[in-house]
Structure formats: structure tokens, C-alpha cells
Specification:
With about 400 residues, the protein is of the alpha+beta class. It is about 30% helix and about 20% strand. It has 3 domains: about 120 residues, no CATH class; about 90 residues, 3-Layer(bba) Sandwich (FAD/NAD(P)-binding domain); about 110 residues, Alpha-Beta Complex (Polyamine Oxidase, Chain A, domain 2). Strands 4-3-10-11-12-9-13 form a 7-stranded mixed sheet. The protein binds flavin-adenine dinucleotide.
Length: about 400
Amino acid sequence: MPLPGKDCREVLQFFEEIQLITGHDVAGRPTYDELALCHDPLERVFMHGEWQEGLSPTTGLTKSEQAQFIAFAAEIEHWRGRQIFTLPVDRSKMDPDALSLDTITMGEWMARKAFDCAPLLWQVDYSCRDDFGGNLHEVSAWAGIHYFASRTGEAGNAEHETVLTWPSGNGWLVDQLKTTTSSSILPNQLIYQIAEQTNGVEVLSYDTQLHEVTRYTARAVVCALPRFIAQRIIPGLAPISGLEYSPWVVTNLTLDELPPSPGVLPAWDNVIYGSSALGYVNAGHQSLSSRPIETVITHYDALCGQPPAKLREWMLTQTHDQWVQRSLQSLMAPHPDLAEHVKSADIWLWGHGMIRPKPGFLWGKERQLMQQHRPPIYFAHSDMSGMSLFEEAYTRGVNTAETLHQAL
Ligand SMILES: Cc1cc2nc3c(=O)[nH]c(=O)nc-3n(C[C@H](O)[C@H](O)[C@H](O)COP(=O)(O)OP(=O)(O)OC[C@H]3O[C@@H](n4cnc5c(N)ncnc54)[C@H](O)[C@@H]3O)c2cc1C
């Protein structure tokens, strides 16, 4: 995850508690555990037959393409300077100019600004797919600009654009959350009803290992399920129409080593220009070994461009081998010999991977409705934020716990 900005108060406090933040410099900026700060190089893009550093496809641009990149950067700087966009999303400023961006797609905004050169359109499209799982014609312009203009995190011992990463990805953060609560976590529980009773709530849970049902009664419940599930299992909960969740395919390829390819050295994030997939993250990137090592690369593919339900149906028709071939094919340009290095391939299909901030959703009625608790049932899923991000999920959890604590 990117370095959290000052508005991510809850997340910053959590990072201090788990000593990911180890202190502060004289300017008051947090200093982070060096092992979690992404090692150089952070990211690279493959174009014109070689890897170049950074994600901006800037090699071989014409004068007019260069001018568009400069004009786009100035637009973003303009928005950044107005300090409207932030995380958590709901701490952003209610500025009418910015809110009007939520009525159009990022693609429409680009067209209105005459940003039409292929490398810039590709970079913005990639960014929308990477953070929201939808392409620039599917995602709100408010979300698209937010992606570029909201990140203000700082560190005393790293550049502003650094990310925090671990070999196990954000699973590391989950492990930290579990350290104080693991004894009260019950795994393998499928909740199939949460119903309000006269004196509290009744929760029905099916144990998928023991094939037993347990009935829990509680004074109150925090429901951290995505809304598309919550509204099926909470009788009387108003269904929200038109929610869009982006389907994702994640392929973990275990390699005997990452084969060399032309251009700059392997980065943490490795993206192929022009590809409809999102490239790969190298789990071995934080290793301090100076020799090539066995590693896992995680290939991400956000399926978009068609209605998500249709894509989910299609996903179910694909075999393991077809997914592996699809990943290898998308990495063919930089790594034509990758198949020879694959020791195993693990595929995970996320049918409803991320809430998609389509136009009108972030600042429309539906999201407002989703944020309303129904005491004694309280809600805390990140889809209430309209963006699927750890910062949003964590802040929702803390704020809902505080609301509940005050209510009881
Ligand atoms: C491929 C991919 C990559 C991502 N990468 C990043 C990243 O790099 N950085 C980032 O910040 N975010 C990333 N995200 C988003 C990330 O998923 C969210 O930030 C985070 O998981 C949201 O947490 P949450 O608790 O709100 O929801 P979830 O993680 O969706 O948690 C909901 C939980 O409810 C459980 N559940 C659902 N139905 C039931 C039921 N009936 N009974 C019991 N349990 C149930 C689910 O199994 C799940 O564990 C990524 C998402 C995807 C799909």
C-alpha cells in the first residue's frame, strides 16, 4: 500500500501500534521499518522491446505526446493543489467542481481535455484497472483523478511515492490484525442469516468443515460483509440496485528464478505497455539475496469492458490450464521463455473482487444508503467507501466499532 497521508489517522495509529512506524524525523514525518519499504526499483514498464523505469510510457514519444503528458501532469497538480481528494474518501472536500467529475467517466474527461494520445490513454486506463478493476470508460472521473491527486503520504526515510510491501502482500497486515484477536476468530463459518430480534440479533452460521449450524445471539452485530451478500442474508435490508463489482483473476506463478529480460533490472511492479492485464508483482523483490532465487510472481488481470455478470459467467467456463496460458501469453513479450521456469501455478478467481466506482456511485444516493447502520446491526465493509482499499476497510472497521461502542 502507498504511504498513508495525514487524513488516514486510524491507519497511521495502527502502524504505530504494530511498530511498522518506528519513530518520527525532526519534521514530524513517520519513519517506517526499512524492510517494509519497497526496495528500488519500485516499478518498470515494458515497451519497445525493453523495460524502462517507472510506469509512465515515456520512451520514444513525439513532441505532441510529450506536451500531453506535461498538460496532464499540470491538471493533476491543479487538483492536488486544491487539496480536495483524500483518503479515506469521505474526508474529501465537497467541492462542486470536483463533484461534477463524478457525473462522467474518466474517458469522457480525457476526451473533453483533448487528451487523446495512445501512451497517455493507456497509462490512465491502466491506473483505473489497477485500482478500481474497471477501464477508463467504466470508472468515474472523480475516482480517476483521485487516483493521481489524493496520495500525500510522507516518510522521513523514503520518497513520497514509495509503497509498503511484504513477501506475503497485505496478508502481512491481516496477520498483524490477528495478533490481538486470533483466539476469537472462528474460521470456516458461512453466515447465512443475520436477523433482528426483540432483544438483539440472531446470527445463523454453517460450519463448512463440521457441517453443523450454530445459532448465535448478540446485543449487536458488526456486519463486515460486502453489501451484495449482506442484502441477501439480512431480512428487510433495503437492496441497493446497480452495484458493480469488478471480477479479478490472480495467478501466482512459482518460478525457479525470474528469467532475465532486456532493460532495467526487475522491479517490484512490472507492467507491459499495451497489455489488457496488469503485469506482475514479484514477491521475492524484498529479498536481500544477491543471487537469482526461486520466487513467486503474482499476475493480476482485472476483467473489464463487458458487464461484470457476463464476465463472471465466462470465468467459470475457463480451465486451470487456460488461465495459466492466458497469463503466460500476456507476459510473452518480456519473458518468452517463462513457461520453462514455472514450477507451479495457483489461480484464484475473485468474482466480486472490488466495488467499482462507476459514474454517480461515489457521491450518489446508493452509497449514502449503504452507510446507514440499522441498529443493532452495524456495517463496516469497504464497499461503503466505493473504493476497495485497505485504508478504507480499516477506517470503516474502527469507526463502526466506535459507533457501536457509544451506542451500547
Ligand atoms: C486482486 C486484488 C488485489 C488487491 N490489492 C490490493 C492492494 O494492493 N491494496 C489494497 O489496499 N487493497 C487491495 N485490494 C482490495 C482489498 O481486497 C481490500 O482493500 C480489502 O480486502 C477490503 O477489506 P474488507 O474487510 O472491506 O472486505 P473483504 O476483504 O472483502 O472481506 C469480506 C469478508 O467477508 C467474507 N464473507 C463473505 N460472505 C460471507 C458469509 N456469508 N459468511 C462469512 N463470511 C463471509 C469474505 O470471505 C471476506 O473474507 C485488492 C483486491 C483484489 C481483488
